[in-house]
From TrEMBL:
Any GO MF annotation of the entry: peptide transmembrane transporter activity
SUPFAM superfamilies (alphabetical): Periplasmic binding protein-like II
UniProt domain Solute-binding protein family: residue ranges: 98-450
BP GO annotations: peptide transport
Name this protein carries in UniProt: ABC transporter substrate-binding protein
Organism (species): Streptomyces spongiae
GO CC aspect terms: ATP-binding cassette (ABC) transporter complex; periplasmic space
Gene3D superfamilies, per the entry: Dipeptide-binding Protein, Domain 1, Dipeptide-binding Protein, Domain 3, Periplasmic binding protein-like II
One Pfam family it belongs to: SBP_bac_5
Length: 566
């Protein structure tokens, strides 16, 4: 009989959900943690139809909050992909192609101002009731009037219904670039959400349209059960999923013994310490998913100076960060935040190469910003330049990265105070602008506008004095030229024009340095084939297997898995 126990540490900041998480991941999107599961006897924690997954929650204690509309630390967020669905998802492995999930299809009018979406006729909620156009329209109207839950930065004039299974969106401006952001919104049933505050409602007993329902909750583990009446596929053989708090220090041994089946966490030295020990049973798949950046708070007076921002950019040694911290498959990439391998057609060739570390040039930029180097300190008006860098204390690797960056900036005389804090405190500080530097993850969509617009458009920047950023513009970047380019981008369906405008945004990012790009982000999983087979790999890259990844990707993975016969 299984006796479960556990504590956890660390993961990489990605969504970024962290690479939203996503939506733009938050990358935020994602990535590190793991449970200590103990057994009274046997070598595996999985029954023939059960699966143990580290979904990288970033928490030591889980809260019974299954609100799929809020981001980050406010909910047991990684579980929403099992119980709730968006209309469609973005397939990063197929160049950002839209993949149906709750919807069966969509059509945008020639002028880009009307979007018609058909809901899958088979779709039902877990209470047995059909998913209707009223449910979908209700959700979008809720998001439209509640900026705090508009994490995708979506915008539309109105939404209406046509019959039971069709919704129609109307836009004041062409919406060619908005589709993946709009269609990536999670949908909730009107019956259970009408009259609720969508920001504070904890949704303790979730009713969703997804493949799983909540079977059991405790502060150390969420257990889900496959719906007998799931409408989208009958190929899923994983009847039960357990999502525990995990101790990353023991994760490799848990995977090796089959006590954990799949991990979305960041495992140090994964290939050497795990995969190479038993390549037939130990595997992984980590394709590029987005990019990892450090954001500046542009409401801080010192950071308004582009020369200071360039000094920071030039002093960071990206290769050292990757060598010491960042997970498998990471490489320094363009300052634009776009990875040449996956985003090449959008990337101006002039900006393809990553920024090289140059301490001499960094010191020169500091001098242009009015600082002098005295006794190894960057000084202005008699005071050393001091910056605060916030990070989530539970993410051990992210805290380590922040401390390495602090050390690197120290080489040009900047003092950096790393403040590691609880996830909820971190989220609040980032939203209110109580920081100088913070790491963030961007999850690629079908077009770069989908990461640039919520990140850089001033409409999402909040108010200068402590006002919360509405979506991802925690930078509080406010620039009319940037806004005009992003708004023009949103209004064209001509790909060549989109490329031209995107490259103009790239020039602003390179010249003005609103953020510093560190590397690409890889998203995926490490897996053990002791209880289940059929996981994606470099030889069979059919889906991203990150167990927190939005859209239908992970559900597609579950549908491919087969239990190992005794």
């Amino acid at each position: 009989m299984l006796a479960e126990c556990g504590i956890r540490i660390g993961r990489s900041t990605v969504r970024l959900r962290r690479f939203h998480r996503w939506g733009p991941i938050s990358v935020a999107v994602a990535m590190g943690l793991v449970l200590t599961a103990c057994q009274d006897g046997g070598s595996t924690s999985s029954g023939s139809d059960s699966m143990m997954i580290n979904y990288a929650s970033g928490k030591t204690v889980l809260q019974r909050n299954f609100n799929p509309l809020i981001g980050g630390s406010g909910a047991t967020q990684g579980t929403r992909i099992y119980m709730y669905q968006s209309l469609m998802g973005v397939n990063v492995l197929k160049g950002g192609a839209l993949e149906p999930w709750l919807a069966s299809g969509q059509k945008l009018s020639a002028d880009g101002r009307t979007l018609t979406v058909d809901i899958n006729k088979k779709a039902t909620w877990s209470d047995g009731k059909p998913v209707t156009a009223d449910d979908v329209a209700f959700t979008y109207q809720l998001v439209k009037k509640t900026p705090e839950i508009n994490t995708n930065g979506i915008s539309f004039a109105s939404v209406s219904t046509q019959g039971e299974k069709t919704v129609v969106f109307h836009f004041d401006k062409p919406a060619f670039t908005q589709l993946s952001a709009l269609l990536g919104q999670y949908i909730v049933p009107k019956k259970y959400w009408e009259g609720k505050n969508p920001v504070t409602f904890a949704n303790p007993n979730p009713v969703g349209s997804g493949a799983y329902t909540l079977k059991r909750f405790d502060p150390q583990q969420v257990t889900l059960a496959l719906r007998d009446d799931y409408w989208r596929t009958n190929s899923i053989q994983v009847k039960e999923i357990r999502l525990p708090v995990v101790n990353s220090a023991t994760e490799i041994s848990q995977l090796t013994r089959g006590q954990e089946d799949l991990s979305g966490g960041a495992i140090p030295n994964l290939k050497k310490e795990y995969v190479d020990k038993d390549p037939k049973k130990n595997g992984y798949f980590y394709p590029t998913y987005g990019s990892l950046i450090v954001v500046f708070n542009h409401d801080r007076s010192a950071l308004k100076d582009v020369h200071l921002r360039k000094a920071v950019e030039l002093s960071i040694d990206r290769n050292q960060l990757i060598e010491l911290v960042t997970q498998l498959g990471a490489n320094p990439i363009s300052q634009t935040g776009l990875d040449a391998a996956t985003q090449g057609k959008w990337l101006d060739p002039a900006y393809k190469n990553p920024v090289k570390t140059d301490l001499s040039a960094a010191k020169s930029e500091l001098e242009k910003a009015g600082y002098t180097l005295s006794g190894g300190k960057a000084v202005k008006d008699g005071k050393q330049l001091t910056l605060t860098y916030i990070e989530v204390s539970d993410f051990a690797d992210s805290v380590q990265r922040a401390r390495i960056i602090a050390s690197q900036l120290g080489k040009i005389g900047i003092k950096v105070k790393v403040q590691a804090m609880a996830s909820g405190t971190y989220t609040e500080a980032r939203e209110k602008g109580d920081f100088d530097l913070a790491s963030y993850g961007l999850a690629y969509g079908s077009v770069p506008w989908q990461i640039y617009n919520p990140l850089l458009n001033s409409q999402f920047a909040g108010t200068p004095k402590g006002g919360k950023a509405q979506t991802n513009n925690y930078l509080r970047w406010r620039d009319k030229t940037t806004d005009n380019l992003l708004n023009e981008l949103a209004g064209t369906g001509d790909e060549q024009k989109q490329i031209e405008l995107t490259r103009k945004v790239e020039k602003i990012i390179v010249d003005q340095v609103p953020f510093v790009t560190l590397s690409n982000i890889t998203a995926g999983c490490a897996w053990s084939a002791r209880n289940w087979t059929g996981f994606p790999s470099e030889n069979d890259p059919y889906a991203i297997c990150a167990p927190w990844n939005g859209g239908p990707a992970f559900e597609n993975v579950l549908a491919r898995l087969k239990p190992v016969k005794p």
